[in-house]
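INTERNAL AUDIT FORM
Audit reference: QA-55
Scope: verify that the stored structure record matches its stored sequence.
Auditor: D.O.
Record contents follow.
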Amino acid sequence: MGTWYQVAWYPNRFQRQCVSDTRATYRLLEQGEVEVTNQCRNAEGRTESIRGVAQPVGRIAEGLLMPAQLRVSFLPALIRWLPVGWGDYWVLALGPGSRYALVSEPTREYLWVLSRTPNLSDGDDRAVRASLAEQGFDLTRLERHTHTAPTAPP
């Protein structure tokens, strides 16, 4: 939970307006869902924001719910029952001390590298790239994401 900064990604159509300072804030809700608030700066310097919800997929392993596999929707609450409004969101790996997370989905068309800070250390950057390469991701598609200030408040 908490705030995560997008430090690298595979560019995608639904974030094309975001040119810098992209971050996501996750908050656990009482019913076990997670509130997701995504923010970024657009080309005009304005902050854009969208709020959605994530639900655990519910895969059970060794008696534990695997919260690393979620489905996410940014549709209005009244129409979230539509199956087309949900996307897979899988946390593939966490760095030491949860400093960074690698997030994708089953087709690997989308990829995000999230960090607890606006920038990765050189060591964490090397570890991220090694992990992604080991998992078969195309590093030539991976683009760094800019944060304009050390704390990057959108």
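Auditor finding: record pair retrieved intact. Helices lie at 122-134.
Action required: none
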